[in-house]
Design a protein that fits this description.
This protein has 2 domains: 68 residues, Winged helix-like DNA-binding domain superfamily/Winged helix DNA-binding domain (Arc Repressor Mutant, subunit A); 185 residues, Rossmann fold. It has 273 residues and is of the alpha/beta class. The radius of gyration is 20 Å and the shape is elongated. Pfam families: DeoRC, HTH_DeoR.
Amino acid sequence: MHGTRSSAGRDGGSRARRDEILRLAVTSGLTSVDELSVAFGVTPSTIRRDLAKLTSQGKIARTYGGAMALTAHPEASLRQRAGEAYRAKRSIARWAAGRVRPGETVLLDAGSTVAAVANELRTATDLTVATTGLTTLEVLADVEGIRVECLGGTLRHVSHGFVGPLTEAALEHLTFDRVFLGADGVTAEDGICEAALEQTRLKQLMARRSDDVYVLAHAAKLGRRPFHAWARLPERWTLVTDSSAPESALAPFRERGVTVQVAPDVAGLPPAR
């Protein structure tokens, strides 16, 4: 009898853990094996068994390094995304900021990873930064060495980004040395995935107005399709990701001729894996 109660307790605990994993997948769109392992205090193999069970029940779909819900989920707010994959975003942002040269005019998208690039640029001089991101404006507002151009329009409160005809009209009058774009998901076949068509239309225009195009996406976003709006990318562009991205996730991009850059881990921080 004792063994039966113990088994039932374990089964109940597993069900509760799987229910919570599903809740996270629905609310944030993606769950990482490593992060879930730490959060629940169990081994990665236990989490993989949970994900396999949820997959067999048709509740989630497996992705690189984790899983996403099959049911529709709301777009995560910028506040929610800010704490995700912090080390990976820092690594990506450090590498991206290192591409910028004095005298350039660069375009920064909205989003938490691109805002981290803005933070890395705070020590720059003789630089012009145009942005659709409210967070980037806040980060660079007091930096004397950077001329800041606000591409205002309609503010999307969930992402703290400006979109719409006013933003697009401003872009039509400017060109840029390089643009750094964020993404809710990115695939080799279809480009950048976002929650709304107004976002993807804007990203396509941003890419067209820039000489060099960089898409900043940590490993969990590779191959991800959480929504149904897509931004097509130019023939030549660079994917910048972190060191936890497996080669199986990078191979489709390389096969299509995309330049893939794996950002080294930031010194002084634990590895992004």
